[in-house]
From TrEMBL:
One GO term describing the cellular component: cytoplasm
SUPFAM superfamilies assigned: Mss4-like
InterPro entries, alphabetized: Met_Sox_Rdtase_MsrB (IPR028427), Met_Sox_Rdtase_MsrB_dom (IPR002579), Mss4-like_sf (IPR011057)
EC number: 1.8.4.12
EC class: oxidoreductase
Cofactor(s) the protein needs: Zn(2+)
Reactions this protein catalyses: L-methionyl-[protein] + [thioredoxin]-disulfide + H2O = L-methionyl-(R)-S-oxide-[protein] + [thioredoxin]-dithiol
Protein name per Swiss-Prot or TrEMBL: peptide-methionine (R)-S-oxide reductase
The MsrB domain, residue ranges: 10-132
Keywords attached to this entry: Metal-binding, Oxidoreductase, Zinc
């Protein structure tokens, strides 16, 4: 039986992710604000999960939030992410995880622009980017 993407062991994840990706995606860490290359990305395309490649966000929903992390007002499809209550660090937040592999992506807040009013605040290191016209090719943030 073939192993599913989200069923990798922690040792397997350590082999396929960079140390920073592992810290954020698998241990629910956070990258420093304004540090990720995709924060500044203005190209058209699709943002995918850095762990499993699932398409998550369209560049058409990306907006400048001033927070230091890539922000989106919507997901490509609601079945691409799971939302989980997060009460760590004495805060009440909603965690965003990839529905395919369970990797931590960031958090969603209710202070985004129309039409959704949501701000998906996502760690740049947890995303890869496929430039429009390069569908099918894996383009990674390095």
């Amino acid at each position: 039986m073939e192993q599913k993407v989200g069923e990798k062991s922690e040792e397997e994840w350590k082999k396929v992710l960079t140390p920073e990706q592992y810290h954020v995606l698998r241990k629910k860490g956070t990258e420093s604000p304004f540090s990720g290359n995709l924060y500044y990305n203005k190209e058209k395309g699709v943002y995918t999960c850095a762990a499993c490649g699932q398409e998550l966000f369209s560049s058409g929903t990306k907006f400048e939030s001033g927070t230091g992390w890539p922000s989106f007002y919507d997901v490509i499809s609601s079945d691409k992410v799971r939302l989980k209550e997060d009460t760590s660090y004495f805060m009440n937040r909603i965690e965003v995880v990839c529905s395919r592999c369970g990797s931590h992506l960031g958090h969603v807040f209710e202070d985004g622009p129309a039409p959704t009013g949501k701000r998906y605040c996502i760690n740049s290191v947890s995303l890869n980017f496929k430039k429009e016209g390069e569908e099918g090719k894996k383009t990674e943030e390095k």
